[in-house]
Amino acid sequence: MSAADWYAHKSLGDGLFWIQERFYQSENRANIWLLRGSHQDVVIDTGLGLRSLPDYIDAKGLLGKDPQRKNPLLAIATHAHFDHSGGLHQFQQVGVHSAEVDALANGDNFETVTWLSDREIAEAPSPGWRARHYKVKAVQPTHILQEGDVINLGDRQLTVLHMPGHSRGSICLHDHENKLLFSGDVVYDGAMIDWLPYSHVSDYISSCERLVGLVDSEQVDQVLPGHYNTFGAKRLHRIASAYISRAETCPAKFSTFAWSTLAGVALRAFNPRSAC
Question: CB of 90 within 8 A of CB of 48?
């Protein structure tokens, strides 16, 4: 299967594209965002990497057809989990938060929580392909990101917001001028996951409090999340506030501990040779 068949995209205008892996039919299917700038282009999250994302972007002309336009293309992972980082190795420039550099550089499929089944792939990307052989390939990040870093696209700036909880290196990218928030898995319109290896509930509560603050200070109008559909500021406020209320209860804390224990055991069994 070609890259042109594997992916599909939708233009949201103003140089922003929403890309998805058509045949990865799972709740884990991540949104891939492509943002064109006047001097720098950025891919935010890269999916599984089963087919070449750069080839798709080029074949579909998503960065334009001007032969003189040679902007560098930077792939940023909002965090290291496999559904967001699997395609990073396809890019020459790669950015991730400093807390998860080692996980990517070492190809640590425990920390990337690699867990893929054949039933999630509606059509195999190549003859004989099996999910059990899938691993996140090691990649050495070229851009080690920290809180407050600014990614300058020329006509846009994206500010790195370190928002741990879902993972220790989770980030959001904030386009302050346009009030856009690329939120990765920090927040999306679904059940938020705080029970994976390197998840931390108290950090997640703090991150959600910060999200509420962004809404209260009118710094976000639209959220472009790591999964599911986009949504607005009011919905962001409700989701983040609901997590804070739920996570602080005793039953929620016990449930999180139980799920975390089970997830760790399952992932170690599935990725026995991964560093932990």
Answer: no
In angstroms and rounded to an integer, the radius of gyration of the C-alpha atoms of the chain is 18
Distance of CA 6 to the CA centre of its chain: 19
Place of tokens 């962001």: 236
Which helix (H) or strand (E) segment holds residue 222: the answer is strand 222-225
Looking at residue 50, the DSSP 8-state letter turns out to be S
Distance (Å, whole) CA 228 – CA 226? 7
Closest CA to 226 of 76, 45, 49, 63: 45
**In whole angstroms, what is the distance from residue 231 CA to residue 177 CA?**
18
Residue with tokens 């190795």: 89
For the chain, first and last CA: distance in Å? 34
Each residue's pLDDT tens digit, 250-269 = 445 545 554 455 555 555 66
Beta carbons of 204 and 165 less than 8 angstroms apart: yes
pLDDT in tens, 128-186: 899 999 999 999 999 999 999 999 999 999 999 999 999 999 999 999 999 999 999 99
Q: What residues does 74 pair with on adjacent strands? A: 42, 93
Contacts of 272 (CB under 8 A, 6+ apart): none
Domain 3-270 class, CATH top level? alpha beta
The DSSP secondary structure of 2-29, one letter per residue, reads -HHHHEEEEEEETTEEEEEETTB-STTP
Neighbours of 72 (CB within 10 A): 11
Instruction: Output phi, psi for 22, to 5 deg.
Output: -60, -40
Could you tell me the CA-to-CA distances from 91 to 15, 21, 59, 139, 271 in Å, in that order?
20, 17, 16, 9, 25
For residue 226, give the 3-state DSSP assignment: coil
Tokens encoding 79: 């965090």
Continuous segment of H or E residues that includes residue 248: none
